[in-house]
Write a structure and sequence with these properties.
The protein is α/β, with parallel strands linked by helices. It has 15 helices and eleven strands. Helix 8 (148-157) crosses helix 10 and helix 13 (275-282) packs parallel to helix 14 (301-315).
Length: 354
């Protein structure tokens, strides 16, 4: 790969031969790191941190100073698009994200305007440019967005939810209205990811955090259909290089075959999906990313190493596996236990690439 010192992650996503399994970690720049907490305190709020390209760059690079990760992921939030649409995003400690102006009626959806990434989301695109420059080819940079369905859930619910009753009521009572919302979000997500790619992201990931709350029929119609539309709109050739794409549906293990046919280069797996079975089901059509239970990192280093080996053994020989957690790391995790996981992957994975 041009301009990359370590291209193991990119080559793996494209199912090209590598000498070991690459590793990065969802939420690798985050609250489990004391250096992150210091920058967050300096920023004054989570949104201040997200909207400062310099601070976002600083925390994106922090985990690379500690660990032998094979990729950096842009520090941002999946809810930047709804915020740019005017819903007014705030974060309250212990409560998570909230929107000041959630979607409550049809007119709210009709009036939504697709944001210009270089205007309303300029702070994210500037952060991508700055991070890419500061990385200087050390490892590739991952850009990302929430999926249309996941963004819609937050926008209609007004924040996090346990029952998802509001968004499901809209979906069942007024499906045409839900499709209108998802169409607008699809255009917004594709435009946003394309801007990240143009600014220097070398792979992109779509986080479908809440796809797994749906029935099979509804997942295919309201979640995967729109993730597939996003993929079809992406500019995956940049400066002569292919930009790999990853789709992660938490709780999506039921639908791996359909996900694998959606056009993405790789699928993220949560920890409830057996990686050996997943590989048998999708064959050579896509790479797989995952899928250690984040709670394993509470264990002693020797237990962590054993669990890492189980996943490496489960995937088996050959390229096409990016080691990761099955979801984001917990904020109270011991950073030394992350080091144990990373070193176990470096130690035990080469035997699967002989």
């Amino acid at each position: 790969m041009q301009n990359l010192i370590n291209d193991t992650f990119i080559r793996t996503l494209l199912k090209q031969p590598v000498t070991r399994t690459p590793i990065w970690m969802m939420r690798q720049a985050g609250r489990y790191l004391p250096e992150y907490r210091r920058v967050r305190e300096k920023a004054g709020s989570f949104m201040n941190l997200c909207t400062s390209p310099e601070l976002a760059c600083e925390v994106t690079l922090q985990p690379l100073e500690r660990y032998r990760f094979d990729a950096a992921i842009l520090f941002s939030d999946i809810l930047t698009i709804p915020d740019a649409m005017g819903l007014g995003l705030t974060f309250t400690e212990g409560e998570g994200p909230k929107f000041d102006k959630p979607i409550t009626r049809a007119e709210d959806i009709h009036q939504l305007v697709i944001p210009d990434p270089e205007v309303e989301l300029r702070y994210v695109i500037d952060a991508v440019r700055l991070i890419r420059r500061e990385l200087n080819g050390r490892v590739p940079l991952i850009g990302f967005s929430g999926s249309p369905w996941t963004l819609a859930t937050y926008m209609v619910e007004g924040g996090s939810s346990k029952s998802f009753s509001k968004v499901k009521a809209l979906m069942y009572e007024q499906p045409q209205l839900m499709h209108e919302l998802l169409d607008k979000l699809t255009q917004s997500v594709a435009s946003y990811l394309n801007a990240q790619i143009a600014a220097g992201a070398q792979a992109v990931m779509v986080f479908d955090t809440w796809g797994g709350i749906l029935s099979t029929d509804d997942y295919l119609e309201f979640s995967l259909r729109y993730a597939q539309k996003v993929r079809a709109l992406l500019n995956t050739q940049q400066d002569g290089q292919q930009i790999p794409t990853i789709l992660f549906s938490k709780g999506g293990g039921l639908w791996l075959e359909e996900m694998a046919a959606s056009g993405y280069d790789a699928l993220g797996l949560d920890w409830q999906t057996d990686i050996h079975t997943a590989r048998q089901r999708v064959g050579a059509s896509v790479a797989l990313q995952g899928n250690l239970d984040p709670a394993v990192l509470y264990a002693k280093p020797e237990v962590i190493a054993e669990k890492v080996q189980n996943i490496l053994r489960g995937f088996g020989q050959g390229s096409g596996h990016v080691f990761n957690l099955g979801h984001g790391i917990m904020p109270d995790m011991n950073p030394e236990h992350v080091a144990a996981m990373v070193e176990a992957v470096h130690t035990f994975s080469p035997q699967y690439h002989l």
